[in-house]
Design goal:
alpha+beta; four-stranded mixed β-sheet; single chain; 359 residues
Length: 359
Amino acid sequence: MPLNTARIHDVPDDPMLAIDYCFEQGWTDGLPVVPPIVDRVDEMLLYEGRPAETVIASHSVTGFECTIYAAAVNAVMAGCKPEYLPVVVAAMEAMNEPDFNFHGSTASTGGSSPLLVVSGPMAEDLGMNSDANLFGPGNRANATIGRTIRLILMNVFRMIPGISDKSTQGNPGKYSLCIAERDRGNPWPLLVEEQSYPLGVSSVTVFAGGGFCNVENHGANTPEQVLDTLADTMANYGCLTLGQSAVVLAPEHSRIMSEAGWNRAEVREYLFIHAYRQVIDLKSVGKFRQKDYDRQHSDGGTSPLIKRDQLHRGLTPEDILLVVGGGDAGGHSCFIPSWSRGRASLMQTKPIGVCIDCN
């Protein structure tokens, strides 16, 4: 691969000085990064079959483009192992889909953080965490893959906090928000199977999420009790919009569903039906836009489950990304709302390491 020497920086051969240099260039997220020496980047690129200059994402407003090479450089800085690169590339390609609204979700005051959900055998191959402390620290793959996305947003697309990233209060997920779907003990087919990818393929789903909402219910022993708790959280005044949702069910809660014979579709449908507020109540707190209501009842957005004078979370049950994840013990599931007041960003999915356009 011909190397563009214009992007090679001459830095003293001292690890600490190299780290400081990265800080001085503004290449970090506030934490130290691994200096992206040429050998590390070249090793990373071995896990991509396409030319290094292949563009995998572009920014509609600024015109900036992310190549596989740029993704590899930022993956090195984030601390990724080379074998993590295909997940990063697939995630960026998913975010590049127009319906994801790449610019809006990264520049908004809403504090959006891209949530990555990896489903399929690659999660285990890479040693990703789908178990206890799922959203917490301690797993290299989860932490560094998610961190790479943030570094790319800052270093390639120049979405700089306080300048082009206008988030009002931010979101700790902006450092890293990447999880794997749990396979062990999962009562339902994996998400990648629902997405109809071939056997053996893994996928990454990206969702422009807002703040993390822990949903605790240790006393529930029926699906309705668990899901009523979740639906109430999804419909709280602070979160309710027509946007999509991510719900990660703890194994303890998913077992309650499976023991009662509920499948994923039935859980999503129940949540959708019950996650709503009366329009009159939304008006009382100033959180109602007539155009949102009109869209619900237009031919393009009507669901048979939507009743008049109710504003539901999303337009259909399929607007809920539902996966199982977390440790065996504990009645702690979570809900992550969409970042926008409406439907300005829709979740996207791509297969990992599969070139759709190669044939």
